[in-house]
Design brief:
There is one protein chain. The protein is built from 6 helices and 9 strands. Strands 1, 2, 3, 4, 5, 6, 7, 8 and 9 form a 9-stranded mixed sheet that branches. It starts with a helix and ends in a 15-residue tail after the last helix. The chain has a single domain (3-194), classed as 3-Layer(aba) Sandwich (VC0467-like), CATH 3.40.1740. The protein is an alpha+beta fold.
């Protein structure tokens, strides 16, 4: 999926870039059950985003060691909150490919500004910078992404698969992944206990 092509086709008035997709209880695809997806690109060509509340079974330090960016996790010189960098299962597509969603205080040739205050860097240079303590002040690592073809996401939303709302960065970057689903629903004033899979349109 061509991230830049989707973004270049974006119509800001109808685009969900910078929004959350919050899975409804009736979500039929188990890979997205109780998911909160941050949408990075959305246009008539399709959409791309990252699940930000499903943990990968390895730490950020272990990942840097596995990628041979450092030889020992003790060598990592992260900022104060660096040891809290979550590693998320970003989605079912290209699960071996890594991306870093981060605060806008880091920039490189491959960095793309997604929305105000948040950027995306898909290359190893940011991991090297983070390991040396010169990366962004806030970040999450995601492996894989979620992608939709033309019209596919719109159809899923129309079928009550997803709720949508403007994303909040403190939820995107929160290291406590388990409460993101409830917090995202809270942005809409919804208590998950009152949600059913048969939600209709008002």
């Amino acid at each position: 999926m061509d991230f830049q092509h989707i973004r270049s086709q974006s119509d800001e008035a109808s685009s969900l870039e910078g929004h959350f997709l919050i899975a409804m209880p009736g979500m039929e695809d188990e890979r997205f059950a109780r998911s909160v997806v941050y949408v990075c690109a959305h246009s008539a060509s399709g959409a791309m985003g990252f699940i930000v509340n499903k943990a990968q079974p390895l730490s950020f330090g272990a990942l840097l060691t596995q990628l041979e960016i450092v030889s020992d996790p003790d060598e990592i010189r992260l900022p104060a909150k660096g040891d809290e960098v979550p590693v998320c299962n970003g989605g079912p597509v290209e699960r071996g490919r890594g991306f870093v969603l981060h605060s806008a205080d880091y920039d490189s040739e491959s960095t793309v500004n997604v929305d105000e205050g948040i950027a995306l860097t898909p290359t190893l240079d940011i991991l090297k910078a983070m390991s040396n303590g010169v990366g962004p002040s806030t970040a999450i690592m995601v492996l894989g992404y979620a992608g939709w073809g033309a019209g596919q996401l719109e159809a899923e939303i129309a079928a009550n698969g997803w709720l949508t709302c403007r994303a909040e960065l403190d939820i995107v970057f929160d290291a406590e992944l388990d409460n993101k689903y409830t917090r995202a629903l809270g942005l809409l004033g919804i208590n998950p206990a009152f949600l059913t899979s048969e939600a209709g349109h008002a």
